Amino acid sequence: MRADRETNADTRAGLLPASVPSWLFLVSGLALAAAIVLIPAGHDLEKAERERDRAIHVEDHARERLRRYQLSLDAVNRGDPIYTEQLRFMLRGEGAPERDRLLPATSGTLTAFDPVVPMANVERGATRRTASRTSILERWAEDPRARLWVIAVAAILILVGLMPSAAAEERFDAQ
């Protein structure tokens, strides 16, 4: 009678993960398989974000240059004497000795002759990971040969976790 109550309690409540050790293998195998898939995906995402940031910066740089060229063209079309004098010195290949006299003192006035701010480490990948921050699992996920071994271990762990436990077989035989 007592054995029937215990069997019915186990059947109603189901098997608790703590009481069946195969769950530990199943969960660890699934976590390992997920990590092997997600770590390279995360690295690819970081690389794509760096490329996107670089492309955005290049586009902004081109847009700024076009804006400056448009300002220069407008100055030429207006016949601006300061800009014309500056252009004359530049085309002769001479440095403007009286550059301070020629350029207006207003701040924020940029022409095509002013340098555009270069990219600040966007091309070089300033967000690149350092070697000291990579874990063993990351190294295994990036190495093709080690990755196959980790996938095989994860598959074995999942297989062991899905196998029926001896206690479940004993209960099945008792019924």
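[next item in queue]
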Amino acid sequence: MNILVPILTLKENDTKFFEEIVKVKPDQVILLHVMDKSFVNKASSAISDIMQFRKISLELIKKLKDKKIDCEEISEWGVTTKKIVANSLIHKTNIVFLVDDKTEFNKEIIKELESNKIRYALIPLDNENTKNLVKK
């Protein structure tokens, strides 16, 4: 099983989020960071964003390797929703894992995933029940 984890909220290294990934026993986890021009206005902002992504990625990579789960990281420029869909299809991922941050942007991503019939899991990081997280 392959899983795509877009780094969007910088909370993807949260323990609860990681535990939900491990529960599905993935063979590979693909970490995706998209530099979306609509969010990045300055070079200094882009550099800061890349550094934050790298920090989250390194933490996740270490945790995944400790669990003996293969991991790949991808950084791309473009429109976030399109890049998530494209990478999910190209890498034939079974599930896209997202932090459930209840934002409009998150809803846009979910709409795009659903329209492309891509399975996803919304992981709430508060004390909500986490049963039945994977959406068809």
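[queue empty]
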